[in-house]
Amino acid sequence: MSTTTTMTVEPTWGHGLNLSSGQRDPVYDLLTPFDKMPTKMTGRTVWTKEELAADPDRWIHHWTAEEIQHVESAIHQVEKQNLSLAKVDRSTFVLPSTVASTLTNIRDELINGIGVTVLRGLPVYNWTTRQASIAYLGIGSYIGRRVSQNRMSHMLGHVKDLDEGKEVNGEGRLYRTHNAQPYHTDDADVVGLLCLHKAMHGGESQVVSTHNIYNVLREERPDVLKELCMPHWFYDRKGEISDGDEEVMRVPGYYYYKDRLSMKWDSYYVGALQRFWEKGLLPTYTDAQREAIAVTEEMARKLSFEMMLEQGDIQFVTNTHNLHARSAYQDANDSEKKRWLQRLWLATSEEEGGWPLPFADSKYEKRGGVQICCYGYNQASSLENWHSLTLGSLRAQMDDLLDMSKDSIVDIVG
Fold first, then answer.
1. Which InterPro entries is this protein grouped with (predicted)?
2. Mean pLDDT computed over every residue of the chain
3. Which of 142-146, 166-170, 197-201 has the highest mean pLDDT?
4. Which of 176, 310, 362, 398 is the most exposed place for a label (fewest CB within 10 A)?
5. In this predicted model, which residue has the larger pLDDT, 60 or 159?
6. What is the pLDDT of residues 334-354, one digit of tens each?
7. In CATH, what number is assigned to the domain containing residue 92?
8. What is the model's pLDDT at position 10?
9. What is the DSSP letter of 44?
10. What percentage of the chain's residues is helix, strand, coil (to nearest 5)?
11. Distances (CA, A) of 49 to 5, 282, 304, 306, 307
12. How many domains does the chain have?
């Protein structure tokens, strides 16, 4: 399997179809050597769990009654125009300048500050599922541009336990189970979660500053930090492979570019390489790499801040300088009361105030996500009635739910 050190830049990402650009190896020549990386990170991106616990107003925004009225007015305008969910954006979900300004400030704090916020108090219990989706998509459009989350180019994911159990053999996506998720970054600048229903037990959300981890490792385990900064970490694509791509990516855990320290990390994907090792396609991890995985996970647990998302909460977390995780959970037997979150992946490109990244798509407006280039498929079900289908029918239709001429709006199976 190739480990090339250069990258050809596509003239137009997504073959001219305005698709998410997908995941690629970095431009290795742009990576800063470890000995030239900062000795210590400072500023708003370095925070501790004690600081967030002591000052919840720093990361929680409580919707006012007036703001909720404006959100509901925007929902009704979308409904009045009979717009599809795919058409919900800043131009159709119009908020007054006061609310838009608040979301702009939150966006800046996500990109350049602590990188986590919770918008609390949306009355989703009074809304239909579609109305909640409209509000979520509309609010999210003030933070970033939606990018796809899976091989079917779906852009609104549903985080539910499908009891697939595939994660044990390295084939599945953990967000479709009730199991704990290890500390990781997602394949987009910002991840958003809207809580429609809490679990009966568990399901807490954890988040940690990767810049804080970096500083502690510099002080206590510089050997581990150096290992994380080497471009010898492979990530299994889990079969989500665009034309011309290989089955794995090679990316350093930490990388420094244009005065920005970013991290890409997911011990689940990093560790799901057994089938490649068995075939001799990749070198097995060294003892130093295995120790780095264990130390990073333990350091993240030690330094992380934990929160519980309440019904109606929207959580946004940056993936450039935070890791996030989730505790295992137990659902109620009543299917109407099972844990249910909606997920967005959002791009904040370099051209739109986001961080510069050592990747060829850094300035592309829909950078990141999962981009698969294949054509000729039609969606088997209307995006507007997905919530009325049974779980069995959803699974049966998974392979048919492809419409690659555009990024689809909803993942009905997650």
1. AlphaKG_dependent_hydroxylases, TauD-like_sf, TauD/TfdA-like
2. 83
3. 142-146
4. 310
5. 60
6. 666 777 899 999 999 999 999
7. 3.60.130.10
8. 40
9. T
10. 35, 20, 50
11. 38, 38, 6, 8, 11
12. 1
Q: Greater confidence, 13 or 308? A: 308
Q: Are 371 and 182 in contact (CB under 8 A)?
A: no
Residue 52 falls within a domain, yes or no?
Answer: yes
| Among 409, 193, 135, CA closest to 309 | 193
Give exposure, 187-223, as e/b (b: 16+ Cβ within 10 Å): bbbbbbbbbbbbbeebbebbbbbbbbbbbebbeebee
Residue 216: name the closest of 304, 125, 281 by CA: 304
pLDDT at residue 246 in the model:
84
Residue 147 inside a domain? The answer is: yes
Q: Range of 112's domain? A: 22-400
In angstroms, the CA 366 to CA 348 distance is 8
Q: Is residue 408 part of a domain?
A: no
Q: How many residues does the chain have?
A: 414
Question: Which residues are 306's β-sheet partners?
Answer: 206
Q: Whole-angstrom Cα distance, residue 138 to residue 344? A: 11
Taking the C-alpha atoms of residue 332 and residue 351, their distance in angstroms, rounded to an integer, is 45
What is the pTM assigned to this prediction?
0.85
With respect to residue 111, please indicate whether it lies within any of the assigned structural domains: yes
* 123 and 312 Cβ atoms separated by less than 8 Å: yes
